[in-house]
Amino acid sequence: MKKAVLICHRGLSRKAPENTLAALEAAIAAGADVVEFDIHTSRDGVLYVIHDETVDRTSNGHGRVADMTSAELDRLDAGSWFSPAFAGQRLPRLSVFLDACKGRVGTYAEIKAADPARVRDMLAARGMLGRAWSFSFDQDIRAQMRARVPDLRRMVLFQHMGSVERAVAAEAHILEFHEGNVTPERVAQARDAGLVTQMFYAGSDVGVFERAIRCGIEQMNIDEAELFRAVEARMLAETI
After folding, report:
1. d(CA 201, CA 66)
2. Which residue out of 51, 160, 173, 178 is catalytically annotated?
3. I want to staple 209 with a disulfide (CB 3.0 to 4.6 A). Which of 40, 64, 145, 231 is the partner?
4. 14-24, pLDDT tens digit by residue?
């Protein structure tokens, strides 16, 4: 048993407003190996780090990212909704976010609405492809990733693929499981097939963390980073 790669989902989003530079810095301070973030495109073609299609939930603005200019998006407060302590946090441009990641933490880019080739080129320009991978829930974007940017590692979901064999056939690099479909047998099969195994879990149930560790999951994409590391440390100590 060895320590899993720790991926902070939208940054350390329990301690700072998700998908902001503050959440990124908190993730790095907490020992994250990788930060997960989401990408949308503004009306004038600027890529932004934000999860939702609209800015309503995570800023003081209203409207769809795709309908707003970069000048409008840059003026928004993306921190006060979370806590007054984070007032003045901005919606990060992807360029700024990647600059803050470079040389400090790996990157997992979930592309919500953006050209994957542009994302790849921005990573490559900073020498970050070696510690980066991508995913999208959008089927068309997934197809573009496979066809146009083969050197940017791609993740697929077990719930989409239905089997390890299909993930291999899709030329994926990483296979992500969820709480309801992770088993020791599937994890072992994926690893034997050369896939990196990952699990997404947004909760804080210690039992789920213990199960993932026993299954041998290599990467954990989670919100409760500190809790997971504590559970992992206890289980590692028990094996000594």
Report:
1. 29
2. 51
3. 231
4. 999 999 999 99
- Is position 40 annotated as part of the catalytic site? no
At 110, give phi and psi (nearest 5°): -90, 115
pLDDT digits (tens, 9 = 90+) for 25-37: 999 999 999 999 9
Is residue 51 flagged as an active site residue?
yes
Please answer whether residues 161 and 201 qualify as being in contact, where contact means their C-beta atoms are separated by less than 8 angstroms.
no
Distance CA 174, CA 153 (A): 8
Q: Strand pairing partners for 132?
A: 107
CATH architecture entry for 5-239:
Alpha-Beta Barrel (3.20)
Domain layout of the chain by residue ranges: 5-239
Residue showing tokens 């504590």:
230
Q: DSSP character for 4? A: P
| φ, ψ of residue 51 in degrees (nearest 5) | -80, -50
